[in-house]
Hints:
- By secondary structure, the protein is mainly alpha-helical.
- The protein has 12 helices and 9 strands.
- The strands form 4 sheets. It has a 3-stranded antiparallel β-sheet with strand order 6-7-8.
- β6 (279-282) and β7 form a beta hairpin.
- It starts with a helix and ends with a helix.
Amino acid sequence: MSAPPDLVSAATRLKRWLFRHALPLWWERGADLRHGGFFERIGMDGQPTHAPKRLRVSARQAHVYALGARLGWDGPADAACRHAIDYVLARRGDDGLYRNEASPDAAPLDGMGLIYDQAFVLLALAAARSQLGHPGFEAPALALQQCIADFAHRLGGYGEAPGLAEPLFANPNMHLFESFQGWSAISTDPSWRDLAAMEAKLAMDRLIKPAAGTLGERFGPDWAPPAASADRFVWPGHLYEWGWLLLDWKDGGSASQAAALRLIEVAERTGVDAAGMTIFALDEHLAPTDRGTRLWSQTERVRACTRAAAATEDDALWLAALEACHALEAFLAVPREGLWWDWRERTGEFREEASPGSSLYHIAGAIAELDRTVLA
């Protein structure tokens, strides 16, 4: 079975929404042309909020506008990408790491570790290298690669700080895997491919539970399961995201494909509610603990099920991709086109709040996969 006609229609609608509404709005209203970078959120009145700006939002927007150009958007992608990357590069500290403010003692604004932001800096630099065509963007990427070597764990992956035994987290390693793959696709430097292979090996050898075929978020020393049962939680959206990344890894072969498909199967079986929404969290036994839903989890289901369906020709996965598109479109059905709701409560009500700019990275990634697999 090829992609069903309804999925082609949904992919077409989503790409049209991205081109006509989201990319223009976030450049016209989301870019801070006075102080640099991109605003955190835009309200349903079309006005940006004035919360402190996180580095990763501008880094993600550099990636988004480069991706939009590759998809065929004829808007000012170069200007938007340049605006974002200039802000990112200005956040480099004396120690070579990038922070919300370029000082060594600047704390993260939302509790995420420093290594998480470095992953998105690498992704932004890859986007700028690809879109703006300037080879000079690889030098700061390679310099940052060397800086984060201090965070490397002896068993693979990266910790939250140099020499820190615990806690260890899967999430920043997932995004580093994405960034390393992005660089390996455009660079001749073999270190990027080696680093991508290291993250894939970490996932398959240490993060994924062999019996259950699932993957948690938090780990103890040496990537052991955390001691507290409350820390052994699972986010279905990340099962999809890891699944897509492992399917996208060109050097993975049958082992990584099998691991990816197992992650996606577990997420389909345990992480999707009766309304076709990917729920937020499960416990270690895969029982729901938070039946609320986030926009980004729907986009990762779109992306993973679409790629898996194309790889396996599984009718059920095509239908899952379609269901996920419908779930995503529900989040996009807001008073101002180009924006979205971020949270849906377990009761089915959406939280009426300003749209976070960080989500456009997830939405654009899902649309790019649909374009590659369904609309090509």
